[in-house]
Amino acid sequence: MPTTAPHALADVTASDSTLRRFLHGLPGVDAVGLEARAASLGTRSIKTTAKAYAIDLAISMVDLTTLEGADTPGKVRALGAKAVHPDPTDRTTPATAAVCVYPDMVAAAKGAVAGSSVKVASVATAFPAGRAALPVKLADVRDAVAAGADEIDMVIDRGAFLAGNYAKVHEEIVAVKEASGAARLKVIFETGELSTYDNIRRASWLGMLAGADFIKTSTGKVAVNATPANTLLMLEAVRDFRAQTGVQVGVKPAGGIRTSKDAIKFLVLVNETAGTDWLDNHWFRFGASSLLNDLLMQRQKLATGRYSGPDYVTVD
Questions:
Q1: DSSP letter string over 190-239?
Q2: Around 285, how many Cα atoms within 13 Å sit in the side-chain half-sphere?
Q3: pLDDT per position in the chain (316 positions), as tens?
Q4: Residue 254 phi, psi dihedral angles, 5° rounding
Q5: Spatial contact of 63 and 287, defined as CB atoms under 8 Å apart
Q6: What residues does 250 pair with on adjacent strands?
Q7: Could you list the active site residues?
């Protein structure tokens, strides 16, 4: 079973048995302790100047997303324009990190963000279920990359993972990483389907061992998506992975993060768990659609002392 690059843990992927032994040798997760710490960090109070900084940082970390069957090139172009200038009335507002779309919408998104810092991310590998043969998944990735995608958001085969076939999941991630070329790879676990925190920890390490540039909680298409607890667990994983290998991996919570208050809680998790090196959109993202609107409303409230009317932000 191939590895993507040599590092301190490369030998654990040498065979199915060594990979299984490593993943099942990871410390068990204290669910009560994990949830208590996440809840405690969520009570931190962020005020005035620090809040303004946090809101701008959160805006710069948003992967502005549309992943619907009714998506059109016009809708994607409008979303791209919003990503570049989230608040057209205030050009000091930072751009978002990326626009995230289906592969067939990548070209439209690229045109909309041309000349800006905004990246184009494309979901792939038979998103969101991931139920397709590997050649089909790789063709999905290559189509997105050929259209200009800067980032690929892939889904793992949750069925294979839950059946304990870790080697298959690892091999697919390695193959997708290769097909992605220069595009950064985000590996989506769909944490709501993994059932246990121990599985989320194992999936995090499996993704990183296979070469993920980011590990991502969810597709946003199931009942349970990003939570403070599962994101905290993944932040611990990337912190510990860098300590052992020297390789830094990003984290992307996605789905269910809708308010500025929620976003700031996640930024506190990042700061207190992984550290300031991850407080940058190269290493931390929010997968969201409606979150940006609330961030813009709160930003305007801090600037003017009043809330805007309902037409202040565009409806996505």
A1: -GGGS-SHHHHHHHHHHHHHTT-SEEE---S-SSS---HHHHHHHHHHHH
A2: 35
A3: 334 445 678 789 999 999 999 999 999 999 999 999 999 998 888 887 899 999 999 999 999 999 999 999 999 999 999 999 999 999 999 999 999 999 999 999 999 999 999 999 999 999 999 999 999 999 999 999 999 999 999 999 999 999 999 999 999 999 999 999 999 999 999 999 999 999 999 999 999 999 999 999 999 999 889 999 999 999 999 999 999 999 999 999 999 999 999 999 999 999 999 999 999 999 999 998 899 999 999 999 998 888 776 566 665 5
A4: -145, 140
A5: yes
A6: 214
A7: 153, 216, 252
The residue behind tokens 């805006």 is 59
Instruction: Report the first-to-last Cα separation within the chain, whole angstroms.
Output: 43
Which among 206, 198, 122 is positioned nearest to 156, based on CA atoms? Answer: 206
- Taking the C-alpha atoms of 4, 10, 14 and 16 in order, what is their torsion angle to the nearest 10 degrees? -90
**Residues 86, 116: contact at Cβ < 8 Å?**
no
Beta bridge partners of 121: 100, 151
Are the C-beta atoms of 51 and 89 separated by less than 8 Å?
no
